[in-house]
Write a structure and sequence with these properties.
alpha/beta; Aldehyde Dehydrogenase, Chain A, domain 1; 7-stranded mixed beta sheet; binds nicotinamide-adenine-dinucleotide; globular; Aldehyde Dehydrogenase, Chain A, domain 2; oxidoreductase; 6-stranded mixed beta sheet
Length: 520
């Protein structure tokens, strides 16, 4: 297996420089353990004669033999990977914290999510991929089977915020479906992906099937999309449009998992303790750098003030830090540039009249990239935070007078990724959920209930994406469906040796009969 590639124009040493900068701003107490794993994996980023071309060529060579293996053999590798992942958990937790900055508990949630995907597809791949009998055109005489073939080489382009889940988590169903995979890791977080690729090799994945290339998106990502048979992209809506156009130009399929501005609705009958705690998790997990993060909360006016007071108080008490253990509730942000964006969003809101109920400032005294969990009220449409994705620990709370108003506001804007509804009346919650334009709606949970249910589809409506991950579709999108129809005994009409007029009578009679027999 190749551990690192990258176009020469996107020199891997630049990413090594990013890694060195990150090392510099980590607290000294980070310790030996982290340094050891980082240097071991980082050495893979030394200049390599690789580029996207050789990686996809080798993937193409290795893929047919892999596809010829029984599905159960391929699936067993995912289950072994699952076990190895848990056995080596501390190492990848260190690496995820080091690369992304996330608190350890959020790194663990990411690892758990990948384990869930490995277990699900390890157990369900054979079921999803099996041949299916379909109804034939002529009952009893037309025997139809739908068969699934792998696409060939799948390209995965992922972001930095969940580098393991949004690369290996999508690669697993592609591999188990019989494809080879080339991952373009985000330039800020290639080490976690390289680590996982190595672990998959240890789990028994044959050489040549999984490649990781690193480098700048518009160069390496674009080169990859030019050479693969399907692309699974996760990232911003802006880049998603570019990727979608490129895939369309080549007439290859793609799934696009994009941005969001996810709403939460808190009904007057909600359990306030649970709703406040749920909002903390929904807004500040991974410092809000999560596509499913809640960034706007619509609370019934009867409880709005109490909810906001308790929520702001809870946010203000969160423990910030950059420790490689479970002492912190929230870690630093990923980069200086991202920190600046978060600061700009809050400053813009403050300048235009919003009230900062909690947080609202960077905390370089704790760690260079720390920003406080921030709760805003009085946000208006002129402010950037109103409709634009911040992708940081910033949330706006708005009072509403009815379910109708809450749903209308939740559905405003151009995104449709995820939503959350809090109520003691779960039937009412379900009914509201159906009216919200979002690929996933959680009732009495922020986002984890839906994303953790790997049997169910995840993805975005409107500008939040095209296609889905997880469930059957999360695997079948990496396949081509083929219909094999065998006609027996009597040929399809027109029947030879019978006049065309007589054939027409027979066709009409059989159509009427099939309708009467209620055949589908
Ligand atoms: P981004 O779009 O800037 O980058 C994502 C990936 O695309 C990176 O690997 C990047 O190098 C690559 N890339 C950039 N330009 C490219 C091009 N022209 N061709 C091919 N690849 C290219 O996204 P980001 O800012 O790093 O990530 C944050 C965004 O991702 C947020 O908007 C967030 O909501 C979204 N996101 C969505 C999901 C989801 O499942 N819907 C999950 C995580 C993040």
């Amino acid at each position: 297996m190749d551990r690192a590639g990258g176009l020469r124009t996107a020199h891997p040493l630049r990413h090594r420089a990013h890694a060195d900068r990150r090392a510099a701003r980590r607290p000294a107490c980070a310790g030996h353990r982290v340094t050891a794993v980082v240097s071991r994996i980082r050495d893979r980023l030394a200049p390599a004669p690789e580029d996207v071309g050789p990686a996809t060529r080798r993937a193409r060579e290795a893929q047919p033999a892999w596809a010829a293996r029984p599905v159960r053999q391929r699936a067993a590798i995912a289950l072994r990977f699952h076990d190895l992942l848990l056995e080596n958990e501390d190492e990848i937790l260190d690496l995820l914290q080091w690369e992304v900055g996330k608190a350890r508990i959020h790194a663990l949630q990411e690892v758990a999510a990948v384990a869930g995907v490995a277990r699900h597809y390890g157990r369900r791949a054979a079921h999803y991929l099996r041949d299916r009998r379909r109804r034939g055109a002529v009952p009893l005489l037309t025997h139809v089977t739908e068969v699934r073939h792998p696409k060939g080489v799948v390209g995965i382009v992922g972001p930095w915020n969940y580098p393991l889940f949004l690369s290996i988590g999508d690669a697993l169903p592609a591999l188990l479906a019989g494809n080879a995979v080339v991952i373009k890791a985000d330039e800020k977080t290639p080490l976690s992906v390289l680590w996982a690729a190595e672990l998959l090799a240890r789990a028994g994945l044959p050489p040549g099937l999984l490649h990781v290339v690193t480098g700048d998106g518009p160069v390496v990502g674009a080169a990859l999309i030019d050479q693969v048979d399907y692309v699974c992209f996760t990232g911003s809506t802006r880049t998603g449009r570019v990727v979608g156009k490129q895939a369309a130009g080549r007439l290859i399929g793609c799934s696009l998992e994009l941005g969001g501005k996810n709403p939460m609705i808190v009904r007057a009958d909600a359990d306030l303790d649970r709703a406040v705690e749920g909002a903390v998790q929904a807004c500040f997990s991974n410092g809000g750098q999560l596509c499913l993060s809640v960034e706007r909360i619509y609370v019934h006016e009867r409880i709005a003030e109490e909810f906001t007071r308790r929520f702001a108080d809870r946010a203000a008490r969160m423990r910030l830090g950059a420790h490689y253990d479970y002492t912190d509730d929230m870690g630093p942000l990923v980069s200086q540039r991202h920190l600046r964006t978060v600061e700009e969003h809050v400053e813009d809101a403050r300048r235009k009249g919003a009230t900062v109920r909690a947080g609202g400032r960077a905390r370089p005294d704790i760690s260079p990239l720390c920003y406080e969990p921030t709760v805003l009220t009085g946000v208006t449409a002129e402010m950037t935070v109103h409709a634009e994705e911040t992708f940081g620990p910033v949330v706006s709370v708005y009072p509403v007078s009815s379910d109708e108003q809450a749903v209308a506001l939740a559905n405003s804007g151009s995104y449709g990724l995820s939503a959350s509804v809090w109520t003691k009346d779960t039937e009412r919650g379900r009914a509201l959920a159906r009216r919200i334009i979002a690929g996933a709606v959680n009732v009495n949970d922020g986002f984890g209930a839906a994303i953790g249910s790997v049997d169910a589809l995840m993805g975005g409506m409107r500008e939040s994406g095209v296609g889905r991950r997880h469930g059957a579709e999360g695997m079948l999108k990496y396949t081509e469906a083929q219909t094999i129809a065998v006609q027996r005994l009597v040929p399809m009409p027109p029947q030879p040796g019978v006049g065309l007029a007589r054939n027409a009578t027979l066709i009409n009679a059989s159509l009427a009969m099939m309708r009467r027999l209620r055949l589908r």
